[in-house]
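Question thread 4412

I'm putting together a teaching handout and wanted feedback from people who do this every day. The idea is simple: show students a protein as raw sequence, then show them the structure tokens that encode its fold, then repeat with a second protein so they can compare. Below is the first pair exactly as I plan to print it.
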Amino acid sequence: FVLFFTDDSHKSEEKDEISKVTIISLVPLLVISVAVIVIFYAYRTHKKRKLNKAWEKNVKPRKHKDCSDVCAIMLDDDRSDISSTCANNINHNTELLPIELDVVVGKGRFAEVYKAKLKQNTSEQYETVAVKIFPYEEYASWKTEKDIFSDVNLKHENILQFLTAEERKTDLGKQYWLITAFHARGNLQEYLTRHIISWEDLWKLGGSLARGIAHLHSDHTPCGRPKTPIVHRDLKSSNILVKNDLTCCLCDFGLSLRLDPSLSVDDLANSGQVGTARYMAPEVLESRMNLENVESFKQTDVYSMALVLWEMTSRCNGVGEVKEYEPPFGSKVREHPCVESMKDNVLRDRGRPEIPSSWLNHQGIQMVCETLIECWDHDPEARLTAQCVAERFSELKHHDKLSGRSCSEEKIPEDGSVTTAK
């Protein structure tokens, strides 16, 4: 027999050599593959950037043009008592304007409002404007409102048109002026006191109010530009103006708050319990706001809006018998109730303004009632948003079930009695 002996160590060396050769052969292939992939993606990225630049060049200018068109519509002369041309010129005027004060048309906690004439050049022509005059002591309120109005993104057809702000020295001392559009119909409370409204009027007034608040609360403009949300914090019928076309515009931003992302919880906590007690939401009366969530501030505005919608509805001839105007909660509280009095009514008794059964006989008004009930819910998070209310009013346009003429221009007789359309 012949025996053959193999050397295992020699075989192992051969295998290692083969592995090394294989690896050395594959490395260039892998490097080439990676290089091809990198080059491919670099090409794709470069091509995409070129397409984006071309898109920006061709599309974005059109977008800005559309935005300007929207803003031009918002400042259209048909929707305001002062021309857009005048407003655009005034906003850049650094000198004191040639204004002649006429009569006092309103008084508030912080200022008086005058009807005034804004003279045009040297001619006898003039524009009618409103001038809100703050005394020296109310500088902080003037500055707050001026800063709110100065935000170009605030412009909206349902927010009072701002012209300019001025500091003036008079015989009575230093004064601070805000010059705005003038609306001859006055504030909503005065208008509802003097007039009975139709369903169409209610739809226009309520829908425009909701749209104004929705824009105030929004974090973007109708054009899509970023915008800092603002809460009014003193919504009530006397802080809402009625325009010639029977739509609303918001005014009086002296207590308003910009919900800037940089605000801390402490900043929000220090903003205080503000507003008018009659219109304060339960959580404001109780000083139990959720400061961790800025949406909670918007929810207080929605509660106040619900009370204003109730005021409108109470003066609509679609509800049957129309009683004399009463503010929310009417005779249940005194004329100027304090916070403690409203706590008893709203918190302890869970009271809300009465909704008579006759209001539910009209399909559109029934839907308004359902909406305002959801808006004044005791739980802030259960309330609708202003945008949702605006959308609901848009859907209500086709629910006109009234018969008879509109009483929107019918004056209340001198004896205070009220008549309804037959």
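The second pair follows. I'd like the answer to focus on this one:
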Amino acid sequence: MLFKFNRLHPPYPLTTKGQKRALSRPEIYSMAELHVIGEILDAVGFAEDGLSCVWALKYGGGWRVLEGSMSGQTQIAFSSASINATFAHPIDIHLCTKSIQGWPKLQFHVWSSDSVGRMRIAGYGFCHVPTFPGEHMIECAMWRPLGSAEQELRRWVLGSGIQVVDTDVISAPFDRCRLNTVSVGKLRLRLAIILRHFDKFDVEY
């Protein structure tokens, strides 16, 4: 089962599975390093207001996080003064690896809050961490599951909605193509990428 229908499910930070032991300094010095520094800027094009974003870093088995948070959540942003819900939420992660397989991705859940505090899913999305150094502006297209006419009515009236059960589907394009979804807006990010020792340890990207 890929979807579930929930009355109310408040946003919690996404879990990051498979945390591993801390690396010693000799191990770190023998691995290529990736620094991801930036922010989730804002959400644009959403029909709902009172938006917040829950995010998580996903990566393959050959990667380790040395410093920084692997998940987080923004504040609730209202867009009454403009068409955008501004987050300006910082991201600062330091990783190391011996292979480019399982290159990191950022996964997002955007939630909306109505006038009585009910929260429903407004959109899902993901983006790959850029593979080239420098500053990058990223627009992440968001989508949500599209239910039946009755389910969509319950979503607006009762604050309920269809949610993804297996979050791995969000960043798996071959699984997503089988889902009935609707585009809902975009999430904009600014990320600065620093690569270190990729040439030294023959890690090609």
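Top answer:
Good format. For the second protein you could add a caption like this: DSSP finds three helices and eleven strands in the chain. The CA atoms of residues 145 and 181 lie 4 Å apart.
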